């Protein structure tokens, strides 16, 4: 399914090598100040071009088709479109008979009986995260009183929390020069979010955010607060003592969420992004034309580390989920 949300409803469309990609947002309140410039900062954080990035360079220029007029949202559906320019589909012709290990080629071929768009990653491409970033810019405006931020905290085995951009780039360049790829961990922190976002059980903050975050291609895991490390603590250590009437806690092992509801402390989660599947080192895969294993040599233009460009994707995807919960929460009390 290509739609997410109950109140702030986001649908994404397009293909990596089709005419373009984009987003349709329904349910956005009217009167939110937005203009084209507001998108540029976050879109440039996702943009290709730096160390470890794909060499495919797109303008990533947002075209506002509807729902924003005279510098504010109008209450009508918002459509933001991005035109694809720098496509090179011939790099992909091989993957129909020799699917790439770790990518969507095999499952898409089976699921859609070979009718899927195989130019680039088609509709499975990370390019569609451009649409999520754009929708996240508007979601953040709905959450104007809160500050949301995601940062890269680990690249492969290296903790990069205190590393400079230059040090991170050195790791990525080394991997890229070897024709290989590397994964990473992105940490999200949302501060000054109101108490009360989220619903018990299926609409919990954790389930809503996770559902959205797992929609980002290459995400393989998520943990909130102390997460998996929490298993090493006793209840007496894991419990977060409430220290004032606002609900502030001494520690934040629960990542700002109890009973599926935000408790007013920072919402914190970490996301694991796998190493990019398309690598330049020859790999063994099944050749469907010849009915035997064969050696696949991938050409084309790929990210050596998705996690770097996906940091703002995680931030804005979380914003979409939280903005939806924010609007839903407006109806929890009269
Ligand atoms: C921002 C972004 C950029 C990506 N760039 C590439 C890429 O250059 N090459 C590639 O093979 N996969 C890339 N991916 C990941 C694939 O789209 C993803 O691995 C594939 O769709 C399979 O999905 P899965 O990894 O979730 O199983 C990228 C993902 C994101 C979020
Ligand atoms: C184009 C973008 O990233 C692409 C994501 C992607 C993939 O398989 O996910 C593969 C590469 O593209 P192509 O399909 O042209 O080989 C990346 O360049 C983008 O992020 O804007």
TrEMBL record:
Cofactor binding comment, as recorded: Reduced FMN (FMNH(2)).
Cofactor: FMNH2
Reaction(s) this enzyme catalyzes, per UniProt: 5-O-(1-carboxyvinyl)-3-phosphoshikimate = chorismate + phosphate
Stretches assigned to coiled coil: none
Statement: the UniProt record of this protein carries the keyword Nuclease: no
BP term (GO), one: aromatic amino acid family biosynthetic process
Binding-site residues for NADP(+), renumbered to this chain: 46
Any GO CC annotation of this UniProt entry: cytosol
Residues that hold FMN according to the record: 123-125, 259, 274-278, 301
The protein's annotated pathway: Metabolic intermediate biosynthesis; chorismate biosynthesis; chorismate from D-erythrose 4-phosphate and phosphoenolpyruvate: step 7/7
EC top class, as a word: lyase
Gene Ontology molecular functions: chorismate synthase activity; FMN binding
Record-given protein name: Chorismate synthase
Organism: Ilyobacter polytropus (strain ATCC 51220 / DSM 2926 / LMG 16218 / CuHBu1)
High-level lineage: Bacteria, Fusobacteriati, Fusobacteriota, Fusobacteriia, Fusobacteriales
